[in-house]
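=== RUN LOG ===
request id: a7f3
mode: sequence -> structure
chains: 1
length: 208
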Amino acid sequence: MVTSHAHRRTALLAVWLLLATLVAGHAPMTVMAATGAADAAQVGPPLVRFDTDAGAIDIELDPERAPQTVENFLDLVDSGFYDGLIFHRVVANFVIQTGGYDRDMQPREPPRTVPNEARNRLKNRRGTVAMARLDDPDSADSQFFINVNNNTHLDHGPDQPGYTVFGRVVAGLDTAVVAIELSETGIRNGMAGVPVTPIVIRKASRIR
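=== RESULT ===
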């Protein structure tokens, strides 16, 4: 009996040590996983910075409401497509637009178009960012505009496809954006509203 109890205690001790080792080995992983989840929660939606001649403009994107538009936009940012382009259309109390021409008014052709996502219920309000397009609702590619007014007539409606809003300006709206809006404009290459002094995007990059 004594021998049996001794063996049992030895076996139980071995099992306890094994469990303790397994728990100890997994504890750091559990902490790391929880920490990683917390970090992910703090990251938030994508944030892009446009460093321009007028100052920095930070745009927070909405991939949940405009997934295809945001994916295309980030691909263009990551590829350096926007670097060196200008704000080629400025209309006070309406929009400032970029994404299509360099400082010599030479067009830069994007690789693809994206479908219209204006049914996402995001509105063209001051500070929001939306895709420019031709008459074809699905012709948006690289050109986008920042609303400097509440442009409700650009929203999706029963009789119009609307313009896809996919983000909003979270920094630079009252500084860089206003400076661009108030810039002197003229006609270049048959296009009206072109700033007389080019306002160049020096660099576009993700900051989150």
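=== NOTES ===
Confidence is low (pLDDT under 50) at residues 1-38.
The longest strand covers residues 95-102.
=== END ===
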